[in-house]
Amino acid sequence: MLAQYFDPAAGGSERQACQQAEDLVQAGMEVTVLARRACGVREQAIGGVREIRIGTPDSPGPLEGGSLWASVLFGLRAALHILRRGGSYDVLHLQGAGLVALLAVPAARWRGMRTVAKVSGGRSGTEAGSLRERGGLLARLSLKVFRQVDAWIAVSGEIAAGLEADGIRPERIHRIGNAVDVGRFRPLPPGDREPIRQALQWPPGTPVALFSGRLVPSKGLLPFLDAWRGTVKPEGALLVILGDGPERPVLEEAVRRDPSVRLLGRRDDVERVLGASDVFVFPSRREGMPNAVLEAMACGLPVAAFRIGGVQDLVEDGREGLLLSEGDDPGLARAAAALLGDPLRRKVLGEAGRVRALGKGREATAQALVACFSKLRSSQGTGKSL
Predict the structure, then answer these.
(1) Structural contact between residues 169 and 128, judged by C-beta atoms closer than 8 angstroms
(2) Residue 97 — very low, low, confident or very high, per pLDDT cuts 50/70/90?
(3) CA distance to 25, 39, 206, per residue, from 57 (Å)
(4) Residues 138 and 284 reside in one and the same domain
(5) Number of independent structural domains in the chain
(6) Most Cβ neighbours (<10 Å): which of 3, 145, 164, 331?
(7) Are 172 and 196 contained in the same domain?
(8) Could you tell me the pTM of the whole model?
(9) Exposed / middle / buried, residue 232 (Cβ in 10 Å: 0-12, 13-18, 19+)
(10) What is the spatial distance between Cα 294 and Cα 199, in angstroms, rounded to a whole number?
(11) 7-16, 42-51, 263-272, 361-370: which range is least confident on average?
(12) 328 within some domain
């Protein structure tokens, strides 16, 4: 598995990569991860997953970004590792299909490895599924290389359509969405909600709409806050924002004098905060398949969101939540407020969301991946290394 960043605390895509590696080991596969070095670690094995860390001039997490040069150097060093030791592996599983994949795929093919690329979306014009939008020499070269990849994993219908538009043959595209830990993320027993709400200092009986995710402009929080302030809401209603990121200082200033909005920052007990909330609101403008929405649904929360990307693969309007046209922040705020004021409808939509999330559990997703990898391995011989 090739993943620039391999750290469950870094973000949604990184958390999915870590879960996926663990689940594939549980399914009986041998998994080695090539990732950028963090905290000086060069090589380690955790939970049966072997990690080989490759140093670059700057090796920050994705929260801080990183230079183009560092990505190029990582890709070159990963390709060199594959050329040297590719005989130990059967399949190269790429987490993303951008510049690093462009360098690694030819090396893997040279060593006779089969290649699988997962596209999670979110970077228009920089990875497969959106390269035609970019144009230019690099995009044309990428398209030529990526059409040689044996199998593609698209987490949403939108991404699958983008891959086809980039010239990827439909039979090579597998629709396998992100996975959620439905054992960790589940509805709270009725008696557990109130103590958690008290610990969070939410007044008794307060209806709470929750956002969880990275605090970055693409999540659309600032325009949604403006709409929230101007919306008629149930008495005492709170909007709680859970997460951290570069936009946090701006958000803190924006809500400093607004008692209807609270920022919780980053927490490790996301499932408890979700379980204590009433509605999940998600004003993001661009997503592949958002983990935050999956986790909220698994906890039995109805979702109010825009009709974008993988959100519309998870939520059917009026069934698991309410979907609005992208950018309709006033409409989204009204939808969240309406759900806060309608406990019966919240219950019906939330239960439907939980049922949908159960079909996205980690075991089912791992089985789909194993089937994909096994089919590729059977066409080149036996083995079980990834």
Answers:
(1) no
(2) confident
(3) 31, 13, 50
(4) no
(5) 2
(6) 3
(7) no
(8) 0.89
(9) exposed
(10) 25
(11) 7-16
(12) yes
